């Protein structure tokens, strides 16, 4: 299951980008395209499994947004959603291999716990 290594890489990326802030991470938002070969339920399961080894992230949750595959038609200059594995323009019907969305796998947003300010 390659999702476990993906989750570990996500944690490493966050540690590099936000040193000293990891204990404040509350929600990690991922954007994944259908063609990225990542299954949201498997990512959730892998996330839960890795949390057992990574107590630093015990208060964090994972949210996965799945993007459909879009192709661009050079003739119509329009983007069309791929349906039923048909990589074709929805307007003119011509086949297209110009994928403009659907291969993404990225951390789109990270939410942190608010810092508590003590008043005297």
Description of the structure:
It is a single chain. With 120 residues, the chain is an alpha+beta fold. The protein has a domain at 2-67 and 101-112: hypothetical protein PF0899 fold (2-Layer Sandwich), CATH 3.30.2320.50. Helix content is 25%, strand content 29%. It is built from 2 helices and 6 strands. It has helices spanning 2-17, 40-53, and strands at residues 25-33, 61-67, 70-73, 78-81, 99-101, 105-112. The strands form 2 sheets. The chain has a 3-stranded mixed β-sheet, with helices on one face. It has a 3-stranded antiparallel β-sheet with strand order 4-3-5, with no helix packed on it. Helix 1 (2-17) packs across helix 2. The N and C termini lie far apart (51 Å). The model has no long low-confidence stretch (mean pLDDT 92).
Short structural summary:
The chain has 120 residues and is an alpha+beta fold. The chain has helices at residues 2-17, 40-53, and strands spanning 25-33, 61-67, 70-73, 78-81, 99-101, 105-112.
Total helices: the number is: 2
- Strand count, sense and closure of the main sheet? 3 strands, mixed
Describe the strand arrangement of the main beta sheet, using strand numbers.
2-1-6
Distance between the termini: 51 Å
CATH architecture of the domain at 2-67 and 101-112: 2-Layer Sandwich
Write down the overall geometry.
elongated
User: Low-confidence spans: pLDDT under 50, at least 5 residues?
Assistant: none
How do the SSEs run, as a string of H and E?
HEHEEEEE
Mean pLDDT, to the nearest integer, reads 92
Rg over alpha carbons: 19 Å
Into which percent range does the helicity of residues fall?
25-40%
At the fold tier of CATH, the topology name of the domain at 2-67 and 101-112 is: hypothetical protein PF0899 fold
Strand proportion, as a percent range, falls in 25-35%
CATH class of the domain at 2-67 and 101-112: Alpha Beta
Number of strands: 6
Global structural class:
alpha+beta
């Amino acid at each position: 299951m390659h999702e476990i290594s993906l989750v570990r890489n996500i944690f490493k990326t966050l540690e590099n980008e936000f040193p000293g802030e990891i204990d404040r991470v509350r929600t990690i938002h991922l954007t994944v395209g259908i063609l990225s070969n990542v299954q949201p339920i498997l990512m959730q399961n892998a996330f839960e499994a890795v949390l057992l080894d990574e107590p630093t992230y015990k208060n964090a949750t994972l949210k996965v947004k799945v993007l459909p595959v879009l192709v661009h038609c050079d003739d119509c200059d329009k983007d069309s959603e791929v349906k039923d594995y048909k990589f074709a323009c929805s307007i003119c019907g011509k086949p297209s291999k110009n994928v403009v969305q659907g291969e993404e796998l990225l951390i789109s947003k990270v939410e942190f716990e608010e810092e508590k300010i003590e008043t005297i």
